[in-house]
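Dear Dr. H.,

I hope your travels went smoothly. While you were away I took the liberty of generating a structure for the chain from your last submission, since the lab meeting agenda had it listed for discussion. I wanted you to have the full record in hand beforehand rather than looking at slides cold. The sequence, exactly as received, is reproduced here:
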Amino acid sequence: MTGSIGTIWTIFDYSKSLEDEGVSVDIVKSGDKKDITSPYRGLTDDEREYLQELVNQSSDLFINDVMVQRGVNRSIIEDARPIRGDYAKSIGLVDEMGGNLFDAINAVSAYP
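The corresponding predicted structure, in token form, is as follows:
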């Protein structure tokens, strides 16, 4: 498997569990978004919108790099789905099929 060309940002919110246990968390911060990924509270709509834009921008950069370096059509990879190795090879996303973990380690070991 290969592919999944895109970006993701996973943010945990433990606030409900902490509240159920009677635990409160106080945060002192230097800016309104300083604790944007804190697991002690959920995201505000403004924060979610901001992070989504960051993820979208990062994904676009990644996709554009893959398009330039590998010559892959954007429509094939823009939904960030996983792609089977044989199909990835047929579209130029990978150079060859590896057999196992040791093949992958040996392949990357050849690069400085």
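Two observations you may find useful: The longest strand covers residues 2-3. The chain has five helices and two strands.

With kind regards,
E. W.
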